[in-house]
Amino acid sequence: xxxxxxSTRLQNRTVAIYVAVAVLGVFCAALGPPTLQGFGLGxxxxxxxxxxxVMPLGIGLAVLSLAxxxxxxxxxxxTGNVLAPPLVWIGTALLAGAMAEESVSVAVIxxxxxxxxxxxxxxxxxxxxxxxxxxPAFVATPVAxxxxxxxxxxxxLRFALDRALQPIESFEGFQWxxxxxxxxxxxxxNFAGYALSLAxxxxxxxxxxxxxxxxxxxxxxxxxxxxxxxxxxxxxxxLTLNTDPIPRDNIMYTGFVGAQIAWFQAATGDTQYAxxxxxxxxxxxxQVFEHDFHxxxxxxxxxxxxxxxxxxxxxxxxxxxxxxxxGANAVCARDAQDGGALWHNIADNFRDGLTRELMDAxxxxxxxxxxxxxxxxxxIGGAAADAxxxxxxxxxxxxxxxxxxxxxxxxxxxxxxxxxxxxxxxIDTGDYRxxxxxxxxxxxxxxxxxxxxxxARLALNLLDEECVAxxxxxxxxxENASVFAHFVELMARFGGYGALADLTxxxxxxxxxxxxxxxxxxxxxxxxxxxxxGALILDLHPGIADGPQTLTLSKCxxxxxxxxxxxRAGEADAGGAARLPVTLAGPTTLHITEETP
Length: 597
What we know:
The chain has helices spanning about 5-30, 35-45, 55-80, 85-100, 105-125, 150-165, 185-200, 210-220, 225, 230-235, 250-270, 295-305, 320-340, 340-355, 385-395, 400-410, 435-450, 455-465, 485-495, 500-505; strands at about 280, 290, 320, 370, 470, 475-480, 515, 525-530, 535-540, 545-555, 560-565, 565-570, 580-585, 590-595. It folds into three domains: about 30-125, no CATH class; about 150-505, Glycosyltransferase (Alpha/alpha barrel), CATH 1.50.10.10; about 515-595, Immunoglobulin-like (Sandwich), CATH 2.60.40. A five-stranded antiparallel beta sheet has the order 8-9-14-11-12, with no helix packed on it. A three-stranded antiparallel beta sheet has the order 7-10-13, with no helix packed on it. The chain is of the alpha+beta class. Helix 12 crosses helix 13. The chain contains 20 helices and 14 strands.
């Protein structure tokens, strides 16, 4: 596996520490009584000291020790618990010393010492990158993007709106699984927000319930239940009692929410979360941490400037390229919206850290790397492990995103152009059930953003085949797909070639005419809201039943006379607001113009 100077330094240090501990263990085993032999062999390898316990009990305890150590490693990977592995290792060594019953021969000592050597050799062979010929660079196929949302996709959009528009304190319809890994509630809220920002980008003249849905998703991120996981990770990962999730080593919250706010602002022009203290976080004990969009992006910059990899940890002491890619969008978007140069000041170091330390020799991004040991696991995640970083790197480092997509695309295709299903993980990372939903939607979303409509179509076809969509009460859902996967699918449906890149790079939008501000969801569904030479063009659908409705408009010219399809419909007030009666009878197109009275 390719590794840069920081990874090499940390790995060499890790090896040196282990060799020193193992030599101490061998010395104790060679010269000491049974008690010291048990402890010493336990230092060489977890459970090794139980060679001094009468068999078969000793073998059973050794196997149990290795199993416990494996669980501790998984806890370290999954929750940042840096204490678990050394506690299990040292604890089992002490227990073996306390239970030692008989001295062991030199041959037994040598056999125990051979076990870690064999294990290291096996791991090295599994993690060694086999260099493959570089595939040709992917060439995008730009697809023209019109405004509006396909009416069929309104039923899919309602899956997100139904959840987002409920009271802020309510999480009905979301999934509470665990709060440490991909099924965490925060990620469902993040990706729902990302999808709705993309939808809002297609409906630039509509605020109303779509604007409010995004705001409520951000507000839900402030709920103590969503971010309290950090109290534990800070304690057992960074060995501190700081509960505030923003300042340090938590890009999986700070960066993800920062991007959610950034794209919300880019889609709506609403900068309420850029105001001081607008994203304050409170614990049940009354602690309050004052934050906002600016403190989040400043925390990201601070983390990148101080990390030896430039890319900063997600879990304590674990650096994930994908998490950092999402956080980079928050900083880039702030620059675009405020006219700053934060990203410009860190981009070269970020690029260097990513390519030298966190990608393999074939150009695939690593899943993660330890900042304590420099170690990284074998490639995991299949096609989604390439697709998701490419998706979020496209707005900030498009050439690297294209390179990742090129190698990932080549790996997921058979020579005949069909998808290799083995590259699509059969586990849905949104809820850990057996389903390829998360993999299919991640690949589709990346393909749409990178300009690869063929792969997007194939991935969505595979999704339809394995996770059948059903529509009930005007809402489409997939029973065998996580809530998270539904939101990623919406990103694929509402995105477009460079859509996220556009949201990240655009200045705050200014309306070109009247804005639809209707809140009557689901009575009124909006599939188009745009301007044409100053006129407001709307495509509306009755979500419940045909009949009379009232449209609420804002940003009109004060006291302007408003006409719908040429007929006088009402007048704006002094603040530019208006309420216009309409009748919806199936899909309805409205052309609203203003006249100076």
